Fold this sequence. Notes:
The complex is a heterodimer of chains A (824) and B (433).
Chain A: E1 17-22, E2 25-30, H1 35-41, E3 65-70, E4 73-74, E5 79-80, E6 91-93, H2 99-114, H3 130-138, E7 156-157, E8 162-164, H4 174-183, E9 189-191, E10 198-200, H5 212-218, E11 224-226, E12 239-244, E13 253-259, E14 262-268, H6 281-285, E15 300-302, E16 309-311, H7 314-331, E17 335-338, H8 345-358, E18 364-365, H9 373-383, H10 395-400, E19 403-407, H11 411-414, H12 416-428, E20 432-437, H13 442-446, E21 450-453, H14 459-464, H15 473-479, E22 485-489, H16 498-509, E23 512-516, H17 522-527, E24 534-535, E25 539-540, H18 544-553, H19 569-577, E26 583-587, H20 597-606, E27 609-614, E28 626-629, E29 638-641, E30 647-650, H21 662-672, H22 682-692, E31 718-724, H23 738-741, E32 748-751, H24 753-759, E33 766-770, E34 775-782, E35 789-793, E36 795-796, E37 799-800, H25 801-805, E38 812-817
Parallel strand pairs in A: 1-6, 17-18, 17-26, 19-20, 19-22, 20-21, 22-23, 26-27, 27-28, 31-35, 32-34
Antiparallel strand pairs in A: 1-2, 3-4, 3-5, 3-6, 7-8, 8-11, 9-10, 12-13, 13-14, 15-16, 15-28, 24-25, 29-30, 31-38, 32-35, 33-34, 33-38, 36-37
Chain B: H1 24-29, H2 34-41, H3 44-54, H4 66-71, E1 82-87, H5 97-103, H6 105-119, E2 123-128, H7 133-148, E3 164-169, H8 179-186, H9 200-203, E4 210-214, H10 215-233, E5 236-237, E6 240-241, E7 243-250, E8 256-261, H11 266-272, E9 282-286, E10 295-296, H12 306-311, E11 320-325, H13 330-344, H14 350-367, H15 373-386, H16 393-423
Parallel strand pairs in B: 1-2, 1-4, 2-3, 7-11
Antiparallel strand pairs in B: 5-6, 7-8, 9-10, 9-11
Helix pairs in contact in B: 2-6, 2-10, 3-6, 3-10, 5-6, 5-7, 6-10, 13-14, 13-16, 14-15, 14-16, 15-16
Amino acid sequence: MTVAPEKSAELVVPEGHVKLTIDGLEVVAPKGELLIRTAERLGIVIPRFCDHPLLDPAGACRQCLVEVEMGGRPMPKPQASCTMTVAEGMVVKTQHTSPVADKAQQGVMELLLINHPLDCPICDKGGECPLQNQALAHGRADSRFHETKRTFPKPIPISTQVLLDRERCVLCQRCTRFSSQIAGDPFIELLERGAQQQIGIAQEKPFQSYFSGNTIQICPVGALTSAAYRFRSRPFDLVSTPSVCEHCSSGCAERTDWRRGKVMRKLAGEDPEVNEEWICDKGRFAFRYATAADRLLRPMVRDADSGQLRESSWTEALRVAAEGLAKARDEAGGVGVLAGGRLTVEDAYAYGKFARVALRTNDVDFRARPHSAEELEFLAASVVGTSPESGGVTFRQLESAPAVLCVAFEPEEEAPIVFLRLRKAARKGRTKVFHLGQWTSPAVDKTFGTLLPCVPGGEPAAIEGLFFNSGTAEAFEALSGSGSVILVGERAAEVPGLFSSVLRLAERTGAKAAWIPRRAGERGALDAGVLPNLLPGGRQVTDGTARAEVEQAWGLAAGALSAEPGRDTDAILGAAAAGELGGLLVGGVDPYDLADPELALRAIERAGFVVSLELRPSAVTERADVVLPIAPSTEKSGSYLNWEGRRREFGTTLDGTGALPDCRVLDTLAVEMDADLFTQTPAAARANLERLGATASTRRAEPPAVPAPPAPGAGEDGVLLATWHQLIDNGSLQDEEPNLAGTARTPVARLSAATAEQFGVVAGEQVTVATERGSVTLTAEPADLPDGVVWLPLNSGVSRLRRELGAGHGATVSLRPQARGGNS
Amino acid sequence: MTNEVSPLTPVLTKRWLSPRSWTIGTYEQLEGYTALRKALKAHPDQLIQLCKDSGLRGRGGAGFPTGMKWGFIPQGDGKPHYLVINADEGEPGTCKDIPLMMADPHSLVEGIIITSYAIRANFAAIYVRGEALHCIRRLNAAVKEAYAAGYLGKDILGSGFDLDVVVHAGAGAYICGEETALLDSLEGRRGQPRLKPPFPATSGLYESPTVVNNVETIASVPFIVNGGSDWFRTMGRDRSPGPKIYSLSGHVTNPGQYEAPMGTTLRDLLELAGGMKDGIPLKFWTPGGSSTPLFTAEHLDVPLDFEGAAEAGSMLGTTALQIFNETVSVPWAVMKWTEFYKHESCGKCTPCREGTYWLTQILQRMVRGEGTPADIETLLDICDNVLGRSFCALGDGAVSPITSGIKYFKDEFLALCETNAVSTGKHALAGAH
Lengths: 824, 433
């Protein structure tokens, strides 16, 4: 190595920065930066336990001590580099150049280990343990501790999902600080003092948090382990593949760890633009659905003689499916395509193209949930095509927004990472969060938010009155601040006039509106054109220029694509039930998620020919003529578009399982029908989609302009139903995870004290909510709902509202107390 | 400056022997609340300056200049200001604040009112050790009397100044004597020290500017207001002026509180206290509670003020002089103190939590006669790894008795190892390897 002959150029210190020296190296750092980070930027790693870049400094473990000199005078004691900020002229000596710092670190390490069980050989963390690694790097080779170690019974479950081994704990408080600072779930705390100090929970109060798994991941020792992964494998046996979460529309970066063809665990990946370093427990733990015993692995066709499904070869199944679909298309009124909301962009594109090219129809819709024509207009006018590059709302913008209004959107339940950002924005910045909803849910409290209460269905009226109502004018004013955001959720489709009102509010205040669907695939399917009114890239079906572009790219004859918008999900089902559609192609749709499950089931029964693409059996399977198994997200590559419109690409985690992605199955099926999709692989589908490019058409979709209806009333005898999904519920992607299920929020029926009294309902006792179709009985819990409203979770435990009541948000239901003591 | 002891004119303790000294009546007869009247006529900044001029230093142990602390409170910041009295007296050997609050609670109350006026606080809290129930009752009674007499509440003595005082009982944790842990505890949180900065002067109780002062410090304030800073400086030494309550305990003929000017020596104090009990010679003593390094008979003439104690290798601390005669084993006493620190370590930081746990066990083993000379080296090395490495000063205090004990009495520690060397040779190792 040669030494540079001339003196290196003097470092320039920009405004707001200081110059200091660490281990003899001059460095410029922004004011306020912690020494431990500045050192890290220089490649000097100081050992640490309590320090975490996303948590407030604690200075508790004392592992990161360094020597500091200020103004030429050495500080008398070594300083914790995780709490001390940089200063002009500071001279820092880490363990590399200071014997004092080195001895201090070795001393702390020795002390940390005296009460540690040193059970690395049987510890889940062994092999990826900061304590193990740093003890090797900065610790003594042997211990001088000959006394009696402190012991605790172990492990104790602090929830059904998280187990605590107090002997291994080094009391860095990362878990408690994460819970109180990041998640806002202070159900885990320090107890006792001195060497008896320990992490714990209150009696009978388990650590209930949707984010508890993060504490396991950031635990720098093996103190917190997950029930699902405990003792299952060693870190060095695992292969780690970067992945993207398939659950909600946040699109979190994840790391999937697997071995011998089996996923063992998922960890949060790091992406500062999206999920920072956190994921929710659903994203972390809910992956075993893909290996459930009932997973469909072989194609099935319905045997003409027995009427039963039987396993078949791919060749046979594809031939039967192609023939049936072609016949339905040509002779029985056509085929409708229900694609579902959990597809990758590539798979969604294949569904859209299959509908247009092979089935020659616009009867295609990804919305496997209540929806509306107003929503279609909203999506076409305001959502499709938006992305961080085009100036769309982003996670980061939530952090800097002066105000955020959540409309028909329950962030903690529907997009937990959005919730974490909102909480961070409100906690660290000055963002005011408003929730247009029915009651002060935990998310309202934890985002330091303000509830703007309204009855279900009364959201548009509330928005229109925002400015005029003295109680809400503050929200209107805050939203008028530059950079404010309105977030609207999937439930808005159940409220007529709401999308229109949101757009009007956005126009009046200058706030940007963003749509946050609940499912991972919805946003991608929208941009891939899996809607009756939209072709890929937001091209309108009714736009001749746009159609011509697609026809050309797809090699179709001019005029091959219909100019007529197709039917939406409800209309497709209605037509099928009425015998007007000859066939259905259903991809991953659970009829019980739809607005009217009875209609859906009737439609599937009635449709002459039904092809189902599914991972596991559903109510569609029982009624399908051909069942084609497809690959779960771990066994294919692809990309999701998250709610921001940000592309979240992922590669195949488990290769060679033989499972085929939807786009491949559809491509082959199309070939059987003499059509070419060019979607043999996700990469091919992506290339085919990208060839389309952006449209040259200048025609813009008209935004919806539905007048806001007056706030509804339920009449004398009924009440209005408010409902939304809870994050951890009966969703089939959470199957096979009993430990996760144990952390679900208990389903209860919430209602105001006055409403309870009116109907004779007693808090803590059972109440029955019913429609003509059926009833659901839950424990009543008082909450600050408007009078005449009852809230139930949409699909939690026995509270399966679509299935049991055929009702959703805004419906009128009846309410009666359950007679005490019984089954009468 | 002089460090002569006589004549001993009591200041802080002058009312203690008066009949029913704790009542407002007695207090008022003996100049009580005259300083307050005087203070309320002055500008608050004048009072801060007076305190600075007097050279009064904190009596809780660290000796921080009181006037400077008051001056740190930002004025005109629009935030409420708070005065918090640290009455969580818990240092082993320390027993000056509780007698003061028992005998003369109104001197504290009057000091609180004057100080609050000076720092523009309208709320003050007295954080008292929870076990001192008798003291809490007496303080509550005094505060009630002061309210009834118009010294507390709205528009005190027509000055337009409002002040409320609350007596808060702690829950018996030594760490809550650390000012930021005290503030957390007062806020209803777990009592553990806070990260500094921010310091209490800018972000203390409820994130507002807060002065935390010891009982004796604040009780000195009315005397300074009445006597003036020059009078105050006639007592004690240049950098540590004023009177001080010295608490003598252990093997002395008459243990108790002895008020004397700052800088008084143990030799003089022992004279006041009637000498060593039964004439058995002095062996070792603490100048200011168990957190201050030990002194021996060599140190009888060390002037006991902040500088004097520091120059002799210890600290003034709380002027709690625990006095031990030749019958006491130093390793045993050090073990007992270390057991105390182990019990009281809050657990927040590694060195203090684990260090005290380990040190206690080594000392217990040595006292049992199962130690080795290598244990002494280990003890010193652990102490080195705790001192100055822990989050707050508790860890520093915890190792003081050990390092100073070994410094002056290493032979006694070695003697404990001899029996062991004869009997077993080597102790069994448990775990860890």
